[in-house]
Specification:
Catalytic activity: adenylyl-molybdopterin + molybdate = Mo-molybdopterin + AMP + H(+)
Domain MoaB/Mog: 185-330
Number of domains: 4
Number of strands: 26
InterPro entries: MoaB/Mog-like_dom_sf (IPR036425), MoaB/Mog_dom (IPR001453), MoeA-like (IPR038987), MoeA_C_domain_IV (IPR005111), MoeA_C_domain_IV_sf (IPR036688), MoeA_linker/N (IPR005110), MoeA_linker/N_sf (IPR036135)
Pathway: Cofactor biosynthesis; molybdopterin biosynthesis
Distance between the termini: 36 Å
Radius of gyration: 30 Å
Function: Catalyzes the insertion of molybdate into adenylated molybdopterin with the concomitant release of AMP.
């Protein structure tokens, strides 16, 4: 596979990929394997991704539309009432000066009307005519005021949300060409993990099994409770069987732990047994460098992906934002995520030749970021109080006042911090 490392072989593992290179590589591979385009009714497109630009089928509005309740008048007043036009109707033209029709908000303005007089600013005269002074600014929306027919409103790759669905309906669409949300699964590795109760007696509580699916959903994935398996027994046959079953029903399988080459780290040999090839095998980033992304091609010829997340919780989230986020953007046909920048209010040390992803709290109004405490790779306290990761590039330090890229943590759809 172009741009990928060689077939899975721990003995021949290449040096870690640079962090920015790894992001670009996994995005390109995801885009090359983008999910198929399907046509879905509007009501079923929420959470999908536009697969073609959205453009109106007619001018918006398609005809002159009254923006108030009142009277569509022709010429100087007072005016003789000759009819009424409601929303949804097509009025007859106003052909004579001194005539008017009652008009409702949203109704089509009749041809020949010179102004609209607001109902609250009108009076009836003794001879049953309408009098008043129309405002100087037109009280109707002109055809094409919002958009012209064929004008691109949103590009392909835009996430579909309720606002987009409403816009598409107003443009005249009954369905949209979209890419569905990726289906994801999670395999939790580690005999030392507890799934309930407090840690003790040499065993620790699994923090990633409950958390990773929620992160994946925030990236637009579909993850069911049945898609989470573990802890998987620390044996090679158990790893191979779990991976084979998970890959059969998912576009992406995330695993936790086992990304190194210790005595019970079976992920690499399991991937080798399944005929996977690496897209990325370790990344020069701290924390989280023993992350990986591998690709398997199914019997249908479609690629499925396995993201190996380190077992340390914060390292696992670094792997999610570093590899999984750009991969999922590619699979959905979305643009590569563009990183915002923030100004550091406190120093952040560099990590030598490795990129340092440092947890920070953002002040959006001020455009600043400050590092948080409790940020060991096995800790989650700092993560719970952070908004994202400041990117400290290799062979640099984050000085006070420096403008640095920030990888925001994913939010629920509709939430925006930048």
């Amino acid at each position: 596979m172009p741009g990928a490392d060689a077939a899975v072989d721990p003995a021949a593992a290449p040096p870690p990929a640079g962090w920015e290179e790894a992001r670009s590589r996994v995005y390109a591979v995801g885009l090359a394997a983008a999910l198929p385009v399907v046509d879905r009714p509007l009501a079923e497109t929420d959470g999908h991704t536009l697969a073609a630009p959205l453009a109106p089928r007619t001018d918006l509005p398609a005809f002159p539309t009254s923006s108030v309740d009142g009277w569509a008048v022709r010429g100087p007043g007072p005016w003789r009432v000759v009819g009424r036009v409601l929303a949804g109707g097509t009025p007859e033209p106003l052909t004579g000066d001194g005539t008017t029709v009652e008009i409702a908000t949203g109704a089509m303005v009749p041809e020949g009307a010179s102004a609209i007089l607001r109902v609250e600013e009108s009076t009836r005269t003794g001879d049953d005519r309408i009098a008043g002074t129309p405002r100087p600014a037109p009280e109707w929306r002109l055809p094409g005021e919002e958009a012209r027919a064929g004008e691109e409103l949103l590009p392909a790759g835009t996430p579909v949300d309720p606002a987009l669905i409403g816009l598409a309906a107003s443009c005249g669409y009954d369905s949209l060409p979209v890419r569905r949300p990726p289906r994801a699964a999670l395999l939790v590795f580690g005999d030392e993990l507890l799934t309930s109760g407090p840690p003790g007696a040499g065993r620790v509580r699994d923090a990633l099994g409950p958390a990773v699916p929620a992160w994946l959903r925030r990236y637009g994935c579909q993850v069911r409770a049945a898609d989470v398996t573990g802890p998987v027994a620390d044996t090679l046959p158990a790893h191979v069987a779990a991976l084979r079953q998970a890959v059969a029903g998912a576009d992406l399988v995330c695993t936790t732990g086992g990304t190194m080459h210790g005595p019970v780290d079976h992920l690499h040999p399991a991937l080798q047994a399944l005929g996977a090839d690496y897209v990325v095998n370790t990344v020069a980033v701290r924390p989280g460098f023993p992350m990986l992304l591998a690709r398997l091609v199914g019997a249908d010829g479609r690629a499925r992906f396995v993201a190996g997340l380190p077992g340390n919780p914060q390292s696992a989230i670094v792997a999610l934002v570093s590899l999984v986020a750009p991969l999922l953007a590619g699979l959905q046909g979305r643009p590569m995520p563009v990183l915002p920048h923030a100004t550091l209010t406190e120093p952040i040390r560099g990590r030598g030749s490795y990129t340092h992803l440092a947890l920070v709290r953002l002040d959006v109004a001020a455009g600043t970021a400050r590092p948080v405490g409790h940020v060991g790779s096995a800790m989650l306290r700092g993560l719970a109080g952070a908004d994202g990761f400041a990117v400290i590039r290799p062979d640099t330090s984050g000085e006070v006042g420096a403008r640095v890229p920030v990888v925001p943590l994913p939010l629920m759809p509709g939430e925006r911090t930048w």
